[in-house]
């Protein structure tokens, strides 16, 4: 069992598996396909925990991730507008792995017809109000794309795919539900409008706040939440999870002690620079849990301890909070910090250490950087 | 020569070497030792460009980096308060590589006496006004530490080391110079006060803004700037460099086009989430250079093109700006974006591609993640 000596991303496997099971069960009750987004954990081993619950199809957000997970998975959706420059990388993924691409531009269909050497499913990327990207409900290209794809055996149209990412800007669970309802209404109208000429169109949705807060997924064929595997302080603040559901925490060694703060090894290259503003208007990068001297192998409980990661440099973190709490820690102690945004923190850390001491690699720690 | 198909961190080797040479020359003129901080580039190959100019000693900010660079370097300072939990990793670094540690707490000296199995140099970490960490000028522990270390052959006291990181909050070059002057004054007073009893105490300073703006380093024995190797938009805004000095740019494929924005593959996991606020009060994550269709092998010139990286998701970036500029780009084109904070971006990308098509690895792409 290794001791912690440097910033280490701890994973509570029991919490993580419970999070996965809760979402898998909920999808099942609604009769929706659960196609979890693997961009959050990016781990072949954690992927297996989904498979044990019957999951057979996954979502990723880059061709690199699709390539990586095609080692173990046979049905992968790349849920970002297809990058035409990566056509040869797509062609190189083993043909037994079914791929689904997202498309917005009719020119991309022409490009795929000419350059793709395999069959793929095609989803039309729809904007349901997040306004990052996607085709608006009234965009004429939706009909144009469906007509272009009609009867195509190589580019097999699946339906409409959207990410209601504006749930991350909601102030409470009611607002999340309202966004989800509006998104489903848009998708429903699209299906109603285009199904007569193009039967079989499906709906794929699934941001983690929406999927966590909503109980009934009627009208949705496929759910793609990702963050639920770990959750984080952002999801907690939105009301999408409890503190007791957050399945990762960063273990940071204390390297200096001041009257008003602790300095830990644990900086921007570990946590990422995603921040939140707390109720008092103070910006922070994470909140601490547990107590000095606690054995990290026992996890970090469900209580914040009052310390806040109030500043981050490249390698340093600054923890502030009540003097009484600060005074319990000495250089060489470990502080456990819940991250703001699990996806970014996991990508920075490239690996997980379970409470049982097992090391699981993230794609970023396991993918060869090819020499040119 | 590889084509760019995914987010790629380009490196202009000529600019990079010129940046290094300028600083090496300046240090030489002042008679100060140039001990560059390698936390910015973290590349063994870029390290060699320093060595070619006579550099023999380097700075890092973690024991991991010290371990990595000890493959090629024989004199390394770990310029953060020593993390006692990493004692065995320090003991394992080959003994021919001289190490210097930073210390703030007298207890750390006792710990090192008991547990360190090699000689090291010891720097006292001083706070010269940044107030992140370090001992304040009047802290009684400075005298206590010097007395503790007096005559120690294993823990060889070097002097006072500080990082005037508050230059990053300066509004102009004059303020940077004032911070540098004040920092040198503090260090000078410490040397004056303690040299009678402890002769030979040295001064080590060196944030990149200060080192870039100041011409004369009288009173400083050692300079440790790091960011100067690449520079970035933060340094440019501070007045520490010109746009023509910025030696890295992210190449991002356009994946979707809207009337008011472009969506690129290039997100928070590539750029990091470091942001700046521009003159109009708008937060952004990078500024674009060059033009659509330009051959990236020719570099990116010295002009901003008006597009701004105004939002970042995990994998997506949103570029906004004048319609006339946006309209020149099509899906499949490459946008080149100057990063806000080179150190963070390089750590995320883990590798560089030179304009000649050569791939250079960063520590994060080259360091084994040991299985537990």
Considering DSSP H and I runs of 4 or more, what fraction of the residues of chain A is helical? Answer: 25-40%
Structural class of chain A: alpha/beta
Count, helices of chain A: 12
Morphology call of chain A? elongated
Q: What is the tally of beta strands of chain A?
A: 19
Mean pLDDT of chain A: 96
- Please state roughly what percent of the residues of chain A sit in beta strands, choosing from under 5%, 5-15%, 15-25%, 25-35%, 35-45% or over 45%: 15-25%
Largest interface: A-B, 67 and 67 residues
Give the strand line-up of the largest sheet of chain A. Answer: 2-9-8-7-6-5-4-3
Radius of gyration of chain A from CA coordinates: 22 Å
The stretches of 5 or more residues of chain A where confidence is low (pLDDT under 50) are none
In whole angstroms, how far apart are the ends of chain A? 38 Å
Assembly annotation? homodimer
Tell me about the biggest sheet of chain A? 8 strands, parallel
């Amino acid at each position: 069992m290794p001791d912690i000596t440097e910033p280490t991303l701890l994973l509570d496997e029991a919490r993580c598996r419970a999070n996965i099971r809760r979402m898998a069960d909920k999808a099942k009750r609604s009769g929706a396909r659960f196609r979890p987004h693997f961009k959050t954990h990016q781990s072949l081993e954690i992927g297996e925990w989904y498979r044990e619950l019957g999951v057979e199809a996954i979502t990723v957000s880059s061709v690199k991730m699709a390539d990586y997970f095609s080692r173990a998975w046979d049905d992968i959706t790349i849920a970002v507008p297809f990058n035409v420059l990566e056509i040869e990388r797509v062609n190189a993924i083993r043909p037994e792995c079914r791929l689904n691409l997202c498309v917005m531009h009719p020119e991309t269909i022409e490009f795929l017809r000419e350059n793709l050497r395999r069959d793929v499913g095609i989803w039309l990327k729809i904007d349901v109000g997040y306004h990052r990207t996607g085709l608006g409900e009234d965009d004429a290209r939706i009909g144009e794309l469906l007509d272009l794809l009609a009867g195509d055996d190589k580019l097999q149209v699946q339906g409409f795919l959207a990410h209601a990412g504006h749930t991350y800007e909601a102030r409470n669970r009611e607002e999340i539900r309202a966004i989800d309802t509006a998104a489903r209404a848009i998708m429903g109208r699209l299906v109603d409008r285009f199904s007569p000429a193009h039967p079989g169109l499906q709906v794929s949705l699934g941001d983690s706040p929406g999927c966590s807060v909503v109980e009934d997924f009627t009208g949705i064929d496929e759910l793609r939440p990702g963050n639920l595997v770990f959750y984080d302080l952002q999801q907690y603040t939105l009301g999408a999870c409890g503190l007791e559901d957050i399945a990762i925490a960063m273990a940071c060694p204390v390297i200096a002690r001041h009257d008003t703060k602790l300095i830990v090894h644990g900086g921007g290259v570990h946590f990422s620079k995603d921040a939140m503003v707390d109720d008092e208007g103070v910006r922070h990068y994470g909140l601490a849990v547990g107590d000095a001297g606690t054995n990290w192998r026992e996890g970090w409980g469900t209580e914040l301890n009052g310390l806040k990661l109030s500043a981050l440099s490249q390698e340093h973190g600054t923890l502030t909070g009540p003097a009484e709490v600060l005074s319990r820690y000495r250089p060489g102690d470990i502080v456990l910090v819940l991250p703001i945004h699990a996806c970014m923190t996991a990508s920075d850390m490239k690996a997980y250490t379970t409470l049982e001491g097992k090391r699981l690699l993230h794609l970023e720690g396991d993918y060869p950087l090819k020499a040119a």
